[in-house]
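Hi Q.,

Before the meeting this afternoon, I wanted you to have the adenosine-5'-triphosphate prediction in hand. No need to reply - just skim if you have a minute. The sequence and ligand are here:
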Amino acid sequence: MSQFQAHSSPSSSLNSSSNSSSNSSAGQVLLECKNLCAWYGAAQILFDVNLQVKRGEVVALMGRNGAGKSTTLKALMGLMPKKTGVVNFLGQDQSHFEPHDAARRGLGFVPEDRRIFSDLTVLENLSVARQGARKFPNGQDAPYWDYANLGKLFPNLASMPHRLGSHMSGGEQQMLTVARSLMGNPLVLLLDEPSEGVAPLIVEQMGEMILTLKRQGVSILLSEQNLHFAQWVSDRVYVLEKGQVRHHSSMQELCEDAQALKAYLSV
Ligand SMILES: Nc1ncnc2c1ncn2[C@@H]1O[C@H](COP(=O)(O)OP(=O)(O)OP(=O)(O)O)[C@@H](O)[C@H]1O
Ligand SMILES: [Mg+2]
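Predicted structure with the ligand bound:
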């Protein structure tokens, strides 16, 4: 038995019925920002960004290189030194929260630089991120992640519990950063370009993983440049250009809007 399984407890496994996004609370806004502006030094990068992530949906944040996708995720997480506007998470204004406060309340973040602890094993990387079980604002149990159900979601990680981070491929490391953020039992997960720079097989696994998380009730906001990937996994989309939201719609509507695709995404 692998240690992924050895650390599980039946009571802590995912309960698909209580965590299903197809319940009466689907559609509740979990994360939103209003008039979000952010700066690097004197340079303003975001201009009055408004967006919402509802319970049980996958939302794509698209735009060309430098459009402000990563900056938006960082600002939502409390990682931008200077910002204005309102960030509301689970009905509470967290505009002035520190990143660790946001994480403690159930906002997960996988940044684009994907740092893992290279001198720790897979299990140790996961252990350091462990947090307690959570509930949605309406009192329902949120998905709870432990070694057992993470092992099902990431079978390749489950097969190498004692592998050092430094001995893993880029794609495996990317999986580990996502798995590690799930150990915090996030209600909403911010994923910065999960399909970027990894082999097609890993991209496919990432997509399957996102869809599984959605089925189990985790809402996801993902920054993405790959239209095919975004179309596969996302329900709705916001498109940024020069730090402003220039388009928002269902993913399907964007894909049928040749003018918007050409104007904002060059496709
Ligand atoms: N640390 C920084 N200091 C100063 N300017 C920055 C910094 N990081 C990003 N920028 C600038 O902010 C703007 C938005 O960058 P951001 O990384 O948010 O874009 P992005 O949409 O994520 O792009 P990409 O698709 O390349 O990841 C760009 O003009 C970028 O040059
Ligand atoms: Mg980016």
